[in-house]
């Protein structure tokens, strides 16, 4: 059995625009408020998180490695005064070597994961924010070795709490394959990602 070990995971947040969809938290604005909104995956703020992943120790000889740059645009849409729809897309740019065969390498786009969260426009009185909806796996891989060859779907949800300068929560989804190439393995996969952030008083 091939074993994968995550060696490093780094994330950076880039605010592109707030436009009319951005809503400043009560009590003011400024760089600290913007930084806290960037830590909230359901904030009314267009953002593009970048995540780098390095896996190694896979392949026939356990000498392969895989680097993935996940480009993750988050775009909120105001549905009405009480609810938002947040689109979260994961576009993986992949380079891997010695995984399918010794000396072989592939570079290109992997399968896209598209999540849609329906979320209340404001947190609860205790600072809890939640969102839920469908998630889709789209077979967009540019090389057979970079994707599953399957179309998948399932439920996704995120729950977080804003407690002063702290933001913490958990993002979850489960995807089942529903169509695709018959010669590829079916998918039934659960993803769970806890997150935590602290916004310093002098965030810029």
The share of residues in extended strands comes to over 45%
Number of DSSP helical runs:
1
Oligomeric status: single chain
Distance between the termini: 46 Å
Give a count of the beta strands, DSSP E runs of length 2 or more.
13
What are the segments in which pLDDT stays under 50 over at least 5 consecutive residues? 1-28
**What do the pLDDT scores average to?**
78
Main sheet properties: 11 strands, antiparallel
| Global structural class | mainly beta
Question: What Rg, in angstroms, do the CA atoms define?
Answer: 19 Å
Element-level helix/strand string: EEHEEEEEEEEEEE
Shape: globular
> How much helix is in the residues?
under 10%
Topology:
Blueprint: E1 5-12, E2 15-17, H1 31-38, E3 46-47, E4 50-58, E5 64-71, E6 74-78, E7 83-97, E8 105-109, E9 112-120, E10 128-138, E11 150-163, E12 166-180, E13 188-198
Antiparallel strand pairs: 1-4, 2-3, 4-5, 5-7, 6-7, 7-8, 7-9, 9-10, 10-11, 11-12, 12-13
What this model shows, in words?
- This protein is mainly β and 204 residues long.
- The chain is 4% helix and 56% strand.
- The chain is built from 1 helix and 13 strands; from the N terminus they run E-E-H-E-E-E-E-E-E-E-E-E-E-E.
- The chain has one helix spanning 31-38, and strands at 5-12, 15-17, 46-47, 50-58, 64-71, 74-78, 83-97, 105-109, 112-120, 128-138, 150-163, 166-180, 188-198.
- The strands form 2 sheets. Strands 1, 4, 5, 6, 7, 8, 9, 10, 11, 12 and 13 form an 11-stranded antiparallel sheet that branches. The chain has a two-stranded antiparallel sheet with strand order 2-3.
- The longest helix has 8 residues, at 31-38.
- The N and C termini lie far apart (46 Å).
